Amino acid sequence: MSIRIAFLASRAPVAQTAKTAMVSRYGNVAKEEAEVIVALGGDGFMLDTLHDTIDLDAPVYGMNRGTIGFLMNEYSESGLIARLEAAEEEIINPLSMRAMDAEGRVHRALAINEVSLLRAGPQAAKLKISVDDRERMAELVCDGALVSTPAGSTAYNYSAHGPILPIGSDVLALTAIAAFRPRRWRGALLPSNATVRFDVLEPDKRPVMADADSVSFPNVVRVEISTQKKIRHKILFDPGHGLEERLISEQFT
Predict the structure, then answer these.
(1) Can you give the C-alpha Rg of the chain in angstroms?
(2) What residues form the annotated binding site for NAD(+)?
(3) Residues forming the annotated binding site?
(4) Which one of 151, 200, 214, 243 is separated from 251 by 20 to 30 angstroms, measured CA to CA?
(5) pLDDT (tens digit, 9 = 90+) per residue, 71-116?
(6) Which residues contact 159 (CB under 8 A, 6 or more apart)?
(7) Is 204 one of the annotated active-site residues of the chain?
(8) 229 C-beta neighbours (distance < 10 Å), count
(9) Is the pTM of this model over 0.70?
(10) How many domains does the chain have?
(11) In this structure, are 199 and 133 located in the same domain?
């Protein structure tokens, strides 16, 4: 069976070499014409590919030519067609970020992993947290805070001691980064349909930047985050190696 494949690769030499080999073996079409998009690189390139193909219906199958490769399958030049035919599909809904900066400009971005607020100066950030227009924490003094999807919960969220979320769970993780006050506050689990709002307190003295999957905006004063249910990223995994299995395995390493 022939499958129209678009091969995309990161700029890393190992990924470019892999693309040359795969194209020679399986052919290549434009991503707009593809039935499947194969991304060759690491997790960062996979996120870039998902963002770049957001308006396309073709699922994305990643092959690891990077470092960790949590979102990727094992790389092999042989047997690709059979692997694509047997692959299992996972659906991921991204987060939508709406950030207002100190000059009143509004910035929007999507995040598949997480939206982070990070201090941008020598002093800790001060944040007020509201959920669905209800104030939940009047003041969090911290290096930052983030809201993570289940798919992104093993990334920055986990490094900040946030929980790993099962891929099928209908929740988001709200995690503090180096919380100073309340010192022992580790965050909260929220329903995926919740809207989280951060208000930056003392923004002139304690500047904060907002980041959505490495798309950053400086000097923000207010950030609203919610799940974008209308956008459905389709990712393919080899049988038995999908996100659910990876999320479980990550907790025992």
Answers:
(1) 19
(2) 43-44, 113-114, 143, 151, 154-159, 178
(3) 43-44, 113-114, 143, 151, 154-159, 178
(4) 214
(5) 899 999 999 999 999 999 988 899 999 999 999 999 999 999 999 9
(6) none
(7) no
(8) 11
(9) yes
(10) 2
(11) yes
